[in-house]
Amino acid sequence: MSPPERSCGQLKGRQIIEAKRLIEKRQQLGPSSPNAAQIKPPTSSYSLVRTYQKEVERQRKMVLKAEHAHQRLLLVVQGLKKLFADENFVTLLRAEGLDTLPKYLAERITHFEGAPA
Question: 25, 72, 87, 101: which is deepest, by most CB within 10 A?
């Protein structure tokens, strides 16, 4: 879905259709939806626009959170890569029985092997 134009704050053509589909989809989910009690069918074009804009803002925030989490993961992976480059650290981990990593992290660290630390 494309976000509404920010200059005028109104939906146009295709965006109205997408907003209606979103509302219909939410109504079909019924009680299983976590926000089912909060979802009410819009009674006017104004409420339809507000519903659409709230959903766009919710999705925008979700994207920002995902980007933040991705940046934190990259920081952790780069730190682990530096630590695993130190043979003394790896020997200490082996001696303590901590020589395994979750598969996903191990793959990420080996993926970054060629990248500068």
Answer: 101
